[in-house]
């Protein structure tokens, strides 16, 4: 269930494997990542484009490396990893390594998974950046005195990035409401439906007490994954779904994004992090997860038959809430209400609303809210957003029914 700990040899093997497959196209990406990491940027912001001096000369020479040399490096690194083993759990991975790996998985994660690349992220529940095994999860779910809240991150991100500008919604829910908080870590490059199935199976394997109350707080793509997991849980009669009390969606593109019409939305998304931004240079790179996010797909049928869009309703007997953000500081016209949003997701998409009534995702009255004068990523750190989350979490709970 947990991720395998990584070490430098494992990472280098994964990068080598990737570079052998697309050596010339990836060189500029790796160079930009190298420069970005060396400058120690903030998690969010633009990338550094070029390295200079000796490093720059090295990157230029990479373009002439042959397939045989690449395979040789890959073989040596694999043997080195096998000989020396992996880092133990006490050697926690750095936030920088996590950010880079998460960004790469968001763009190439489906490819990593298919090719069994060591860079591929395996879904797991984590606390403080550490993956939990099945027994630890059972203890965590059964020993909490209040509610269990699962936080699900968005595209190209990871569980550590719920902390932004010194703020973490999960930490405050734990401190103020006594919630036991656990974070989902997953490969955002896979189809949303694949992550949804993986999540419902993980939760179904956890034996928990009958009166447990489970909440989900999901940002962006995380909301689609949560809806997908609920869909497949209902389809497979998984018991955990009956214990879910509330789901709060933060900037989730339930209907995709208007910017996708111009074909540029994926490139804009990649600019979220300096670690994912370099991948915008490879214009044809589009992971399955990224494509699903553009359209709001949550089931296999959505992406297998794109011509027929079937809207999956919100799960029954669960209180669902939607928070949308807009960079505007005042009420907009109906037209602008449809177009203007947080820079990535329109208000209507985040609220589940559609110009065609048959495609509306019905949130109950009083369970939608618009945060003004903030962007998509500020949904993670805005104190007013947290206050609304806390107010909803304090509302009377739906009792767990088996």
Give the tags:
11% strand; 2 domains; 15 helices; 8 strands; eight-stranded mixed sheet; alpha/beta; Rossmann fold; single chain; globular; 402 residues
What is the secondary structure topology, with strand pairs?
Layout: H1 8-21, H2 23-38, H3 53-62, H4 67-84, H5 95-114, E1 124-127, E2 130-131, H6 134-143, E3 148-152, H7 169-177, E4 180-185, H8 192-204, E5 214-219, H9 221-235, E6 244-250, H10 265-270, H11 288-295, H12 300-304, E7 319-326, H13 334-339, H14 347-351, E8 368-372, H15 383-394
Parallel strand pairs: 3-4, 3-5, 5-6, 6-7, 7-8
Antiparallel strand pairs: 1-2, 1-4
Helix pairs in contact: 1-2, 1-4, 2-3, 7-15, 8-9
Can you put this structure into words, describing what you see?
The protein is α/β, with parallel strands linked by helices. It has 2 domains: 90 residues, no CATH class; 271 residues, Alpha/Beta hydrolase fold, catalytic domain (Rossmann fold). It is built from 15 helices and 8 strands. Helix 7 links the parallel strand 3 and strand 4.
């Amino acid at each position: 269930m947990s991720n395998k700990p990584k070490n430098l040899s494992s990472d280098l093997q994964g990068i080598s494997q990737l570079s052998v497959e697309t050596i010339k196209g990836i060189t500029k990406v790796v160079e930009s990542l190298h420069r970005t990491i060396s400058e120690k940027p903030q998690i969010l912001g633009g990338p550094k484009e070029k390295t200079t001096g000796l490093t720059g000369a090295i990157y230029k020479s990479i373009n002439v490396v042959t397939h045989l040399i690449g395979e040789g490096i890959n073989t040596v690194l694999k043997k080195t990893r096998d000989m020396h083993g992996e880092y133990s759990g006490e050697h926690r991975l750095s936030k920088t390594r996590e950010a880079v790996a998460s960004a790469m998985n968001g763009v190439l994660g489906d490819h990593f998974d298919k090719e069994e690349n060591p860079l591929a992220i395996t879904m797991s529940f984590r606390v403080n950046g550490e993956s939990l095994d099945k027994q630890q999860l059972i203890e965590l779910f059964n020993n909490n005195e209040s509610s269990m809240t699962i936080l699900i991150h968005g595209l190209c991100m990871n569980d550590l990035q719920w902390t932004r500008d010194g703020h973490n919604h999960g930490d405050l829910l734990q401190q103020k409401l006594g919630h036991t908080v656990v974070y989902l870590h997953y490969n955002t490059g896979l189809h949303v439906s694949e992550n949804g199935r993986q999540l419902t199976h993980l939760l179904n394997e956890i034996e928990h007490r009958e009166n447990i109350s489970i909440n989900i707080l999901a940002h962006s793509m995380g909301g689609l994954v949560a809806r997908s997991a609920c869909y497949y849980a209902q389809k497979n009669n998984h018991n955990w779904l009956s214990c879910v009390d509330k789901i709060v969606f933060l900037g989730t593109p339930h209907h995709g994004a208007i910017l996708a019409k111009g074909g540029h939305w994926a490139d804009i998304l990649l600019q979220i992090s300096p670690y994912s931004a370099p991948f915008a240079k490879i214009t044809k790179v589009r992971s399955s997860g990224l494509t699903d996010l553009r359209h709001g797909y949550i089931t296999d049928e959505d992406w297998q038959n794109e011509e027929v869009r079937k809207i999956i309703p919100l799960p029954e007997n669960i209180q669902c809430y939607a928070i949308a953000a807009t960079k505007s500081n005042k009420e907009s016209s109906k037209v602008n209400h449809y177009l203007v949003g947080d820079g990535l997701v329109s208000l209507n998409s985040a609220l589940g609303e559609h110009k065609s009534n048959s495609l509306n995702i019905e949130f109950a009255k009083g369970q939608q809210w618009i945060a003004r004068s903030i962007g998509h990523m500020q949904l993670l750190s805005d104190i007013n957003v947290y206050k609304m989350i806390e107010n909803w979490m304090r509302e009377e709970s739906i009792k767990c029914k088996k």
